[in-house]
Design a protein that fits this description.
By secondary structure, the chain is mostly helical. It is built from eight helices and no strands. It is globular and about 45 Å long. This is NnrU family protein.
Amino acid sequence: MAMLILGLAIFLGAHSLRMYAEGWRTRMLARLGARGWKALYSVVSIVGFVLIVWGFGEARQQPVPLYAPPAWARHVNALFTLAALVLFFAARGPANHFRAKLGHPMLAGTALWALGHLLTNGSLHDVLLFGAFLLWAAGDYAMWRRRDRIAGTTYPAGTLAGDLGALVIGAAAWAAFAFWLHARWIGVSPFG
């Protein structure tokens, strides 16, 4: 469990610098340059991610049950994960109504993904992983929306083509992951 916690601290800590240490990040960026900063940030993030995967895998070997997920939660999680993947692609795709309305759809999607997985997984290691991502995503989303309001940031108006692109690509990625990749990579079939 310690490896999982360390990985979460490193990974989410690195991804929280804009939230808690903007001044330090700005100084490091100026000192290292954009390429140097991105290289350091990438290495730290990869180390954190590897530790999360390693720690989660170890923790799964000796689960500590906290609660029994309800049967209906599997279906809710499937919908939340579908929405999360649509929002992920909306964040990176052409102008769409998701980004225009939410501002930061990837963070909103991460929160939905984490919440859905909390509903369907009741062991301590699950709660640590998905709870940490839910708290991080919700906090980061709130921070960015507050900064958007203060700065008067507006996002490009959405287009039907952008919406359809995010929906189609997100749904295709969801189907591939739900019916094939999740079982292969994670070792759990979402639909039993």
